[in-house]
Specification:
Largest sheet: 7 strands, mixed
Structural class: mainly beta
Number of helices: 1
Low-confidence stretches: none
């Protein structure tokens, strides 16, 4: 599975962005997917995850109620809708994929995208 993240950019605090992660490979629909982020000088942290059938999602406490992860298996794409953005959301966002939702959640996925930069100005 190869992953290509896009949709990052510069937005003012309170604004919204939608990130996309397009996956190649016929087995995308059987993979759990997730989003992580890494701010300058900080470690990579979990943001959100979704299982292969989209009936189970998980979020970091810092984004609950503001971010929504979803997927379209027909388009081999996972999305991260980010609303009410805050300056502390500024980071490079990475998508990840694995057969195991647990490994996605733990940050030990087999597959990672290249990252897309989100900058939130105050």
């Amino acid at each position: 599975v190869q992953l290509q993240a896009s949709g990052g950019g510069l937005v003012q605090a309170g604004g919204s962005l939608r990130l996309s992660c397009a996956a190649s490979g016929r087995t995308f629909s059987r993979h759990a997917m997730g989003w992580f982020r890494q701010a300058p000088g900080k470690e990579r942290e979990f943001v959100a995850a979704i299982n292969w059938s989209a009936d189970s999602t998980d979020y970091a406490d810092s984004v609950k109620g503001r971010f929504t992860i979803s997927r379209d298996n027909d388009k081999n794409t996972v999305y991260l809708q980010m609303n009410s953005l805050k300056p502390e959301d500024t980071a490079v966002y990475y998508c990840a994929a694995d057969y195991s939702l647990s490994r996605v959640r733990a940050g030990t996925s087999n597959y990672w995208g290249q990252g897309t930069l989100v900058t939130v100005s105050s």
